[in-house]
Amino acid sequence: MRYEFADRLQRLPPYLFVRLEEMTAKKRAEGIDIIDFGIGDPDLPTPDEIIEEMCIQSRINANQKYSSSAGERDLRVAVARWYKKRYGVDVDPDTQVCVTIGSKEAIFNIAQAFVNPGETIIAPSPGYPVYSGASTIFNEAECVKVPLRAEKDWLLDVDECPKGAKMLYINYPNNPTGATCDKDYLKKVYDWCQENDTILCVDDAYCEMTYDGYQAPSILEIGEDAIEFGSFSKTFNMTGFRLGYAVGHPDLIAGLKKCKGQVDSGAPIFIQKAAIKALEMYGENGEAPEAVRKNMKEYSDRREVLVNGLRELGFDVKMPKGTFYIWFDSKCKTSLEFTERMLDLGIVVTPGSGFGESAEGYVRMTVTQPIPRIKEALQRMKEGLN
Ligand SMILES: Cc1ncc(COP(=O)(O)O)c(C=O)c1O
User: Fold this and answer.
1) CATH classification at residue 119
2) How far is CA 188 from CA 73, 201, 215, 302, in A?
3) From the alpha carbon of 239, which atom of ligand 1 is closest?
4) What is the structure's pLDDT at 20?
5) Domain co-membership, 326 together with 371
6) Rounded distance between C-alpha atoms, residue 19 and residue 12, angstroms
7) Are 35 and 376 within 8 A, CB to CB?
8) Residues with Cβ < 8 Å from 151, sequence gap 6 or more?
9) Is the CB of residue 175 below 6 angstroms from any atom belonging to ligand 1?
10) Is residue 225 a part of any domain in this protein?
11) N or C: which end of the chain has fewer CB within 10 A?
């Protein structure tokens, strides 16, 4: 028997990271010592307090059962409390919060819940591939990719967005560019979406991964007519736990919950209980706990070593105030050409073109390597690139 993928699956572009993994595996098989700055997965461990809580919670029989697709109520209450501490915003845990299995599924499911075939989704380019991939293609929607540009600090310009779109995704602190935004910018995007009847989806996966005193604002500080996706993945080095949350307008949350009700039964309860512990570690004034601050200090130090080293090699690189991504023009004709040259030196970087054609020539390096390995990579680049 022959098994053919459904049309929607065939329309998906190849997922960038899969191709990169294959290329890297080949080099490893050749015995090359690889320094990997590729995929955005923290190398630092999950804080002990969270792991210990999860172990305790996982032994409780009631926590070994199905959760609900909306998530445990006590975690939704903890998310609401965190929004109050962190942003001074009141949200109702019953109608305005939904627990998600990582933010990725919610970014897809929100489109599933609200976008009809043929309607338009606006996705930033470069951008996280799920907006233009699964969110658009699985819903038979049309994707309009709006280019982000260096001269506009990689901020999506709503004046370039088509009117009449059903949904718009933005993401600051931004993957892959490391760009950040302020509240005035969020207000501009919010107002545009209100005027144009466009559902505003704010991907806030990196809201706590910030440096130099910068604090990322929340769209809920502007108004409730939007949905924001948060994640435990990067804040607490919990990518493998698969846990996030969505906060926003009750109708948007209701649609997300209805959709999730058909496809999942919620994240494991013991992981949700550990996440309560994680959020409760924040101070009453919204100050990040010691464990988070320590991790961010480490990423910040690595970021400085890498950016300064790249500058010494002649690259024009901005010091990002958010994310763990270093983003720069490779000065090669194509991103892939630079990526391949780096791979020959045993260094994995991510080609910017994989995040959108408008980023051709750019590359992304993630600071998920300790400082001695970053220095080693810089040395290899000094000797191997001309
Ligand atoms: C911009 C952005 N959004 C969302 C996600 C998904 O994060 P998670 O599903 O682990 O919460 C990622 C992961 O790398 C990301 O870069």
Assistant:
1) 3.40.640.10
2) 33, 14, 18, 33
3) 10
4) 81
5) yes
6) 14
7) yes
8) none
9) yes
10) yes
11) N
Quote the CA–CA distance of 208 and 228 in Å, as a whole number: 14
Cβ 40 under 6 angstroms from ligand 1: yes
Q: Is the CB of 135 under 6 A from ligand 1?
A: no
Give every CB contact of residue 303 below 8 A, 6+ residues apart in sequence.
211, 319, 320, 324, 326, 367
Going along the chain, which residue ranges are E strands? Answer: 35-36, 97-100, 120-125, 142-147, 167-170, 199-203, 227-231, 244-248, 325-329, 347-348, 350-351, 362-366
CA–CA gap between residue 368 and residue 337 (Å, rounded): 23
- Is the minimum distance from the CB of 237 to ligand 1 under 6 angstroms? no
The parent domain of residue 19 ranges over: 10-45+289-384
The string of pLDDT tens digits covering residues 126-176 is 999 999 998 899 999 999 999 999 999 999 999 999 999 999 999 999 999
Count of structural domains within the chain = 2
pLDDT tier, 299 (very low <50, low <70, confident <90, very high otherwise): very high
Residue 255: CB within 6 Å of ligand 1? no
> pLDDT tens across 25-35, in order?
999 999 999 99
pLDDT > 70 in the chain, percent: 99
Output the domain CATH number for residue 345: 3.90.1150.10
Q: How far is the CA of 31 from the centre of ligand 1 (A)?
A: 31
Structure tokens at 140: 């038979």
Structure token pair of residue 58: 């996982």
